[in-house]
Design a protein that fits this description.
binds NADP nicotinamide-adenine-dinucleotide phosphate, Rossmann fold, globular, 9 helices, alpha/beta
């Protein structure tokens, strides 16, 4: 086959590739999911809010590997509070490649809210990013996911269930709501669309100069509590997301990817 025919065949295959949207995917775990899916042949939609430059760099890199395989959409997820803004966001998602096969809810805010300091702004932001936006986005994108017999994967947390992270009550509550969303939607969206979750333990520490940073002593005690004795990697999460996408007889399930930390938090001695 000559070069032109090869290029035509590659372009044709790319145009038939499934499409994945990962919210908040310019950096960190979201970017790892995007890269892993792209390596498996997916066309990817990189959603971001503040990290537009990182998102564009990532898309350029992926488009260099395979032309027309990555697009960037910029939006603050507060758009879910406004019907017209949400419709326009959904329009741009579908316009990107004409279909949607996999929706990954990854965007999140994570910071402490000790009793006595909790305010409405924290409540609104933590509940919106970790629970409300995933629900309203899932609802809005359902018709497109149904067309593709697609699936939804939610990024949860081992602290969303039975094992609260001390001083993070609002975040814990938001992720617990998101966890219940996964199970409720798995019932309601079946049989066309599967819904599953991945619950990281500590897979990448918050950046030290951000408002999400953890105290060094807390970081050490976290590593000490992990039977596998290391912080996980974003790629460990991406691997489980891709497994759940392929697991065609699995819905409503949540996989802990935490190096065994959940066992010690539940009282297991290590
Ligand atoms: N890191 C861990 O070890 C760990 C542990 C447990 C659970 N998780 C869960 O795994 C997922 C990924 O973790 P991560 O640490 O990689 O996440 P992260 O860096 O804290 O956040 C991911 C992205 O969320 C986006 N985001 C935040 N607020 C937004 C808003 N209002 N509108 C739109 N986007 C918004 C940000 O995008 P921009 O930068 O573009 O603004 C951010 O880059 C999260 O759901 C997290 O809760 C992670």
């Amino acid at each position: 086959m000559n070069q032109e025919a090869n290029a035509y065949q590659a372009e044709n295959m790319n145009n038939q590739a499934p499409v994945m949207l990962v919210t908040g995917s310019a950096r960190r775990i979201g970017a790892a999911i995007v890269k892993a899916a792209h390596r498996q042949g997916y066309r990817v939609i990189i959603h971001c809010h503040r990290s537009e430059q990182d998102a564009n760099d990532l898309a350029d890199h992926l488009n260099d590997i395979r032309a027309n395989s990555a697009k960037v959409i910029v939006a603050d997820l507060t758009i879910v509070n406004d019907g017209m803004a949400l419709d326009s966001f959904v329009g741009s998602i579908i316009e990107a490649f004409g279909q949607l096969d996999v929706l990954v809810h990854n965007a999140s805010r994570f910071y402490p809210s000790p009793l006595g300091s909790i305010n409405h702004a924290q409540w609104d932001e933590l509940l919106l990013t970790n629970a409300k936006a995933p629900l309203l986005l899932s609802q809005a994108l359902l018709p497109y996911l149904k067309q593709q017999q697609g699936c939804i994967i939610s990024l949860l947390d081992i602290h969303a269930h039975d094992r609260p992270f001390n001083n993070y009550t609002v975040y814990n509550m938001a992720k617990a709501a998101h966890r219940m969303m996964v199970q409720s939607l798995a019932l309601e969206m079946a049989p066309e669309v599967r819904v599953n979750g991945v619950a990281p333990g500590v897979n990448i520490l918050p950046e030290t100069d951000s408002d999400q940073a953890l105290e060094p002593t807390l970081q050490h005690s976290i590593v000490d509590s992990i039977p596998l004795q290391r912080i996980g990697k974003p790629e460990d999460i991406a691997h489980s997301v891709l497994y759940l996408i392929q697991a065609s007889y699995v819905t409503g399930q949540i996989i802990d990817v935490d190096g065994g930390r959940g066992l010690t938090l539940a009282g297991g001695k290590y």
